[in-house]
Structure formats: structure tokens, C-alpha cells
């Protein structure tokens, strides 16, 4: 039999995430998946899991879990204190948690999202080929709650136990390479200059759907509206308040506000770890 994890403390927002629900955007289904895809892959690599195996993505305050039998876990992504039955253990490398012990992944000391991976992966039932929670559409499992019991898959192999792993530090300033279009012509030349010259900041209203910014408003040429059109991961949409919103993994697949540009997907992992107040600069990409 494989292990089960009982959620002792669910934290502010903890969801099951994997490599995402790809290939269904034409049906109106977002990709979802781990916002920090690099952290997902590294945590799974350390445990011998498939790169996109399901993990728990926590937000700011971590979570606590009790396995019913011994498991090997990694807590990575945003740095945080980690304990087993109150005793400090290593962050960012595999640790063994005995059956009945409580693994507590604490609040972040930097960044936003920590990832709790277990050898064998979180084995909730997949929906459309993915185990990810999608907060916008409601597909996949609901965000975890206290008392939930999560099944664990069969570990592929006994993982190595390295002394350290190359986790990137959360950004102190977020640089987002941007390709203008498809609706850059809806904005004044001054707005286009402002977008790549001004410093914005991450808004506290950011979430898995989009990274919202605070800063100078971008002036439009026309006050008209667009018919709803397709949206891609990394699209920078400008709502009526003029402040750019960078679409993340739970973004809608269509939208009616103009997209001034698209951020390179590889830059979005850092966006997942940019805490409110972090400076944001858009650079020509």
C-alpha cells in the first residue's frame, strides 16, 4: 500500500499542481499547473519523480501534513523553515518523514510560493490529463482544507539525498522580457515608452490568474472596446485603470481588454515568487 497525507494545517492557499492541463485552450480550458515550473521540476528531480508529477503549492504561510507511513519529501521554491514533529530539518533537499510525524512547512522568509513534493507524487484523480487545481474554472481538486487526506503514488526509486540543490532566490526586482503586440497600436506612443521605461510594483491583489501591477497608467488611443479574443500565458492585458496585468497559469482563455504585449514564458517562474511591492520592469524582448 502507498502512503496517505492528512492535512493538519492547510495554510492561506494550498493547491495541488503539476505540469498543467495543456492542449485544451481551444475548448476554453486554461493550462493551470505550478506557477514556478522550475521549482516543480527541481523538487521532482530530487525525489526521482517524473518532472511534472503533482505537488502541493503553498502561498506565503505554508502547510502541515501527517503521513500515515514513512515518506520522503522536499520543501522547495520560496525559502521557509521546515520541521518534523517540531525539530528543524533541511529545506530544499529530500528528508524522511516517519509515519505519524507532522511535517510543518512554515511561512516564507522570501518569495511567495513554496512547493511540497513527495516521492511518488500526489495521486489525486486527474481531470483532462492533469491533477492541477484551477482556481478560475474550478477544474481539478479543490484547494486543500484541514482534514483532507491526499493519496501518494508509488515512488519510482529511492531518491539520492544531496547536501544542497540549486534553488534560485526569489527576485528582489522582477525583469519581464516583453514582445509588443498584438494590440500595441491601441496605445499612445507615450504609453509604449512608459511601459518599458517606468518601474512598476507587484500589487497585493495578484493571484494565480494574474500578476497585477501598480504604477503609471498607460494611455489608450481610443476608448473603444474589443470583441473577446484568445489569450495566451504571459499576455499583458491592460484593463480600464491602465495598469498592466500579466496573465499567469489560471488565466482566462479569452478576454476583451487590449493585450499590449506578451512576456516570455521562461520569465514567469520568477513572477510566481515576486512578493507584493517587488519592483517590476518590462524590457524589450
UniProtKB/TrEMBL annotation:
Gene3D superfamilies on file: Cyclophilin-like
Residues of the Carboxyltransferase domain: 26-285
A Gene Ontology molecular function term of the record: hydrolase activity
InterPro entries for this protein: CT_A_B, Cyclophilin-like_dom_sf, PxpC
Keywords for the protein's UniProt record, in alphabetical order: ATP-binding, Hydrolase, Nucleotide-binding
UniProt superkingdom: Bacteria
Keyword Ribonucleoprotein in record: no
The name this protein goes by in its record: Allophanate hydrolase
Native species: Streptomyces incarnatus
Amino acid at each position: 500500500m502507498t502512503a496517505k497525507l492528512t492535512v493538519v494545517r492547510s495554510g492561506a492557499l494550498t493547491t495541488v499542481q503539476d505540469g498543467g492541463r495543456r492542449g485544451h485552450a481551444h475548448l476554453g480550458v486554461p493550462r493551470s499547473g505550478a506557477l514556478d515550473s522550475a521549482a516543480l521540476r527541481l523538487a521532482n528531480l530530487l525525489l526521482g519523480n517524473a518532472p511534472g508529477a503533482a505537488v502541493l503549492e503553498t502561498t506565503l504561510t505554508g502547510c502541515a501534513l501527517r503521513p500515515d507511513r514513512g515518506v520522503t519529501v522536499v520543501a522547495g521554491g520560496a525559502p521557509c523553515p521546515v520541521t518534523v514533529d517540531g525539530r528543524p530539518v533541511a529545506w530544499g533537499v529530500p528528508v524522511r518523514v516517519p509515519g505519524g510525524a507532522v511535517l510543518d512547512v512554515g511561512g516564507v522568509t522570501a518569495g511567495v510560493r513554496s512547493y511540497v513534493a513527495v516521492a511518488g507524487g500526489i495521486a489525486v484523480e486527474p481531470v483532462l490529463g492533469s491533477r492541477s487545481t484551477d482556481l478560475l474554472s474550478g477544474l481539478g481538486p479543490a484547494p486543500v482544507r484541514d482534514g483532507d487526506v491526499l493519496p501518494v503514488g508509488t515512488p519510482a526509486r529511492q531518491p539520492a539525498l544531496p547536501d544542497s540543490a540549486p534553488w534560485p532566490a526569489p527576485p528582489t526586482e522582477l525583469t519581464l522580457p516583453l514582445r509588443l503586440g498584438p494590440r500595441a497600436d491601441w496605445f499612445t506612443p507615450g504609453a509604449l515608452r512608459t511601459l518599458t521605461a517606468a518601474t512598476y510594483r507587484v500589487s497585493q491583489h495578484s493571484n494565480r490568474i494574474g500578476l497585477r501591477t501598480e504604477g503609471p497608467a498607460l494611455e489608450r488611443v481610443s476608448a473603444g472596446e474589443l470583441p473577446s479574443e484568445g489569450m495566451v500565458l504571459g499576455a499583458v492585458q491592460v484593463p480600464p485603470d491602465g495598469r498592466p496585468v500579466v496573465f499567469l497559469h489560471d488565466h482566462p482563455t479569452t478576454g476583451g481588454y487590449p493585450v499590449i504585449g506578451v512576456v516570455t514564458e521562461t520569465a514567469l517562474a520568477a513572477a510566481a515568487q515576486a512578493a507584493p511591492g517587488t519592483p517590476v520592469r518590462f524590457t524589450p524582448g
